[in-house]
User: Which sequence fits this backbone?
């Protein structure tokens, strides 16, 4: 089974990582900058898992992984680029021992859903596939054998390296915290590497993944005889929605038969795409349900407790939500699409490098009202 | 209320945008700016244009990443002396030439861009398709309440080109805008936006 392969590769025990939820509600510390709403059981579990991970670290590791909530540079220090072009800060997966990896996996599994955790692990596995392909092809020499990023790469933020120094592989995924894990104060868990940028901000009882980058290259591959398709649910949902449209609806939805590139990738915080394409108000109830299913195919990477209010808000705003398609209608996996609503902007963006656009994706999720939890912190 | 471009109210300001040149024209040759996503264009030149309606002006950010078919012509334009680096004396004329091919019309009247920022990554990285050129410009835009049209055509195509342009709003100084209609050409070269201006 692929999950056993992932376990063996990543050195962790898989399966639902959700620990038992605490029974008592958290109370805010009156001496700290307390939030209006107390933490719920999910946040308590997330904080407990975060503290358990931090407890596995040596002092220098703890220093490396914790950044102040006010650290604006670290907050935006994420990218789809691999090591060698972009230098992440924090702790590198390749430098963690088995206990630390297990604790981090548990933490991710508490923040994310089972599907979300699997997605993260499959993306890391995809980068192992890419690393092996590059080595076989005589491209970039494989690195990332636990020795850290290339010499000369700048610490934290910015880009570095030169052609030939690109480093692929699961070792090159980094964890960091912006703000210290707390039930009473806001903080962000960052986990990312090539084609992955998870930014999970916890504010009292609430968690948002805005903004987060997913995708991968490849997204379809075979690992030890098992077929993996990281985005099969999303591609299926997109094709089903497009296929449900009548001629007039399709004409509105398909903005162009030419694919476009990702618009709101890393570095584009605070920007809001205007609605375009087919408004959900012009869809039947069944089609609106398909649209919500498409959104949930992406956002379902978040744990169910925090996904529910996010989806409820998106559903409540369906009348102001639009769906736009750019690219071939006969091949949903190769076309760009976006969903734009007041509290959710999703982009699915196939890339040409690597040959098959459907097998190289840069996908983004943003909540323009709440990037990095700003909307909750300001309440 | 529809969210708009600009800082989220709350704990912190928006992420820093690409560095701008001072109006004295200091050139910033840098590695790729943190967080700029690569388009991995494959063979073509990928151009992503961000057009922002701001008080009294339209702002343009044009990000370019280079596919293998576009490397030679682009590097020849950026580095005519072939020394492997793009000096200010080389890059600025290139950028001005690009802007001359990005025509802007406001309510049917041609508007002129002023180059305000340029970031050129390490040319070796640029040639791999894993880094982006970023060009920033602004054009004056008179404010008046009522319906208006903004039309942009990006004709810059030194090689096969994948283009897209998107419009954004940055309200302020008592003005707000609402985009009521957008139209695009299939090749992504043209974007027309109908918007309504309101004085608060």
Assistant:
């Amino acid at each position: 089974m692929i999950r056993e392969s992932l376990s063996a590769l990543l050195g962790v025990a898989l399966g639902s990582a959700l620990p038992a939820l605490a029974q008592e509600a958290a109370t805010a510390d009156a001496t700290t900058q307390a939030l209006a709403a107390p933490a719920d059981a999910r946040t308590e579990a997330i904080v407990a898992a975060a503290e358990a991970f931090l407890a596995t670290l040596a002092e220098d590791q703890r220093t490396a992984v914790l950044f102040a909530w006010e650290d604006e540079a670290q907050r935006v220090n994420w990218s789809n680029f691999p090591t060698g072009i972009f230098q992440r800060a924090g702790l590198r997966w390749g430098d963690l021992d088995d206990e630390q990896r297990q604790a981090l996996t548990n933490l991710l599994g508490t923040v994310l859903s089972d599907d979300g955790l699997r997605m993260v692990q499959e993306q890391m596995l995809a980068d192992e596939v890419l690393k092996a392909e590059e080595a076989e092809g005589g491209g970039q020499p494989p690195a990332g054998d636990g020795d850290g990023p290339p010499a000369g790469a700048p610490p934290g933020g910015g880009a570095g390296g030169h052609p030939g120094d690109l480093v692929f592989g699961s070792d090159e995924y980094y964890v960091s915290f912006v703000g210290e894990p707390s039930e009473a104060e806001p903080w962000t868990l960052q986990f990312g590497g090539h084609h992955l940028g998870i930014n999970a901000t916890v504010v009292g009882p609430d968690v948002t993944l805005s903004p987060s980058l997913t995708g991968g290259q490849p997204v379809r591959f075979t690992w030890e005889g098992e077929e993996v398709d990281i985005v099969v649910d999303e591609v299926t949902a997109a094709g089903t929605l497009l296929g449900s449209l009548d001629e007039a609806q399709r004409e509105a939805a398909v903005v162009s038969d030419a694919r476009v590139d990702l618009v709101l990738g890393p570095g584009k915080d605070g920007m809001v795409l205007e609605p375009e394409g087919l408004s959900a108000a012009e869809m039947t109830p069944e089609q609106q349900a398909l649209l919500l299913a498409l959104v949930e195919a992406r956002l379902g990477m978040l744990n169910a407790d925090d996904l529910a209010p996010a989806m409820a808000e998106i559903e409540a705003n369906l009348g102001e939500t639009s769906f736009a398609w750019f690219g071939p209608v006969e091949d949903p996996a190769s076309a760009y699409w976006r969903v734009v609503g007041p509290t959710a902007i999703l982009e699915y963006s196939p890339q040409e490098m690597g040959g098959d656009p459907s097998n190289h994706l840069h996908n983004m999720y943003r909540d323009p009202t709440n990037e990095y939890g700003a909307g909750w912190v300001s309440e | 209320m529809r969210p708009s471009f600009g800082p989220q109210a709350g704990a912190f300001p928006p992420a820093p945008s690409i560095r701008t040149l001072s109006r004295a024209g200091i050139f910033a040759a840098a590695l790729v700016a943190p967080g700029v996503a690569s388009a991995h264009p494959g063979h073509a030149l990928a151009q992503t244009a961000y057009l922002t309606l701001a008080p009294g002006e339209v702002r343009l950010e044009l990000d370019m990443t280079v596919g293998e078919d576009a490397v030679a012509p682009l590097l020849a334009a950026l580095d005519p002396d072939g020394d492997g680096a793009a000096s200010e004396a080389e890059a600025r004329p290139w950028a001005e030439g690009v802007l001359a091919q990005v025509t802007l019309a406001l309510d049917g009247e041609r508007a002129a861009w002023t180059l305000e920022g340029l970031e050129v990554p390490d040319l070796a990285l640029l040639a791999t398709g894993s880094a982006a050129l970023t060009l920033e410009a602004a054009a004056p835009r008179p404010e008046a309440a009522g319906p208006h049209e903004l039309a942009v055509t990006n004709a810059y195509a030194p090689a096969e080109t994948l283009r897209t342009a998107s419009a954004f709003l940055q309200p302020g100084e008592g003005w707000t805008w609402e985009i009521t209609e957008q139209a695009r050409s299939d090749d992504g070269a043209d974007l027309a936006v109908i918007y309504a201006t309101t004085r608060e």
Summary: Residues 302 and 308 of chain A are 9 Å apart (CA to CA). The longest helix of chain A spans residues 114-136.
